[in-house]
Structure prediction request, 112 residues.
Amino acid sequence: MEALFILAVNKKPYSSEKIKEFVKSIDEDNSSYNYYFGTHKYGHHWGVKANIQTFIKEKILDESFLLSALGSPVEIKDSLFDGKPAKCFVYLIEGVRIYFVEGFAVGMDELK
Prediction:
């Protein structure tokens, strides 16, 4: 498994080389990564919508990762997306609906 991103709470900018050093040091220490997007242990939702949009664009967000990262949605319903049958996962706290076709996210929209 590779780290998807590293959250630095000290607000310092880090180069990609420095981030690679972090990841390598974690591997050498036999530590585990903390994977998430969405709510972290302090209850913030930093970057969740941007991350979902990026993952959809890159066609890498599958249902199992979404469920492990955000937990169960408040609702899963049959829907349409771009005229195709889709499963719609509704997350009220994050304010998003995410549409899946054949197990992969194909789109999202924001809830008000």
The CA atoms of residues 18 and 24 lie 10 Å apart.
